[in-house]
Amino acid sequence: MKVHEYQARALLAEAGIPVPASRVIDAPEQAAKAFRQLGAETAVVKAQVHAGGRGKAGYVKLVASANEAKQHATRMFAQPMVSAQTGPAGVKVRKILMAAAVDIAKEYYLGVVVDRARRTPVIMASSQGGVEIEEVAARNPGAIKKAWFHPHLGLQPFQARALAAAIGLYRLQAKTTADIMLKLARLFIEKDCSLAEINPLVQTPTGEILAIDAKMNFDDNALFRQADIAELFDESEENPAELRAKEHNLSYIALDGNIGCLVNGAGLAMSTMDIIKLHGGEPANFLDVGGSVTCEGAVEAFKIILADAKVKAVLVNIFGGIARCDVIADALLRAAQEVGFTVPVVVRLEGTRVDVARQLLKEANIPQLQPATDLTDAARQVCAAV
Ligand code: ADP
Ligand code: MG
Description:
Elements: H1 5-14, E1 22-25, H2 31-38, E2 43-48, H3 54-57, E3 60-63, H4 66-78, E4 95-100, E5 106-115, E6 120-126, H5 133-139, E7 144-148, H6 157-166, H7 171-190, E8 193-203, E9 209-211, E10 214-218, H8 227-230, H9 240-247, E11 251-254, E12 259-263, H10 266-278, E13 285-288, H11 295-306, E14 313-320, H12 325-338, E15 345-351, H13 354-364, E16 369-371, H14 375-385
Parallel strand pairs: 12-14, 14-15, 15-16
Antiparallel strand pairs: 1-4, 2-3, 2-4, 5-6, 5-8, 6-7, 8-9, 8-10, 11-13
Bound molecules: adenosine-5'-diphosphate (ADP) and magnesium ion (MG).
């Protein structure tokens, strides 16, 4: 689960990490007042959306007057933000953060994630923080220093001091930054984060260290024990089809292609997408109905896929283990009745009760249904169909 910068800032502040004063507004008329309330000579107007790259997109703007604040807020609320991390349609801005501007001498990067290869959390730090961090990571990975830590023991003070020194900090700034690293690593563990990032962490000309942007993602599977975090969920930032799928316990992720995929099991979903691409097609989604799918769940899955106007054909790829092929066949027929198939639906079923399933489909005699003999045949058929 993602949260907004203003929510992540509040969590950082709670953890004792220094964050400049800020205010959140949800309409352009509130901008001038918020600017005055901040009482700073200059402020920064920042769109609150669950996508990064705001600075480069023009959605982080320094302003020197209440009037200027209002102008930028008006523009940001009116025009969806298009950045490297959004689609071409962009994302609508519903909230804006106004923060006191900070004089910046240097920008650092701090981030905690799980290192999957090492199966342990890792804190990363760089002296080249700021809006170019992706390029730094790609071109000069050596500029990103790392320290791995045990999830129960946490980041150790000596590790934090070494990391602060490794990014060129010394004396008071090294001490302050090491302290921020320890707090960030603790926050990551305590709140079940999958990402806790401060970019940039800035040093001011007078030597202060401040977090001026924050990004935190949380492990969905841990939300049951993080009630305060779960409350930060912002439905309006989610893809409506993905939300609908979640309500029915389906894992659905919208993609850019035109072949809808209905699959059981994440591994099978991945290989289905691979084989579609191998045959020159592009998946429109990743939809995993799970192992213990019910007929209702599968019908809902079809409805979600068919509601996507981009979908020009569907590939149903089911391996019946715990899930039964006849349940899926039944769901297919119900979906055909309830929504109607307007595009070809290629069906590859294998496993538990597949004979019953094939018989059901055959008897139904639906012209859009195309049975496939195996995975390769299915991929060829669906790619030909689009
Ligand atoms: P994003 O990461 O989405 O581009 P940031 O909040 O990191 O957004 O802002 C981008 C850049 O804008 C920062 O790297 C920094 O240079 C500048 N900036 C952001 N907030 C402030 C602030 N409070 N004072 C001064 N400069 C800021
Ligand atoms: Mg940033």
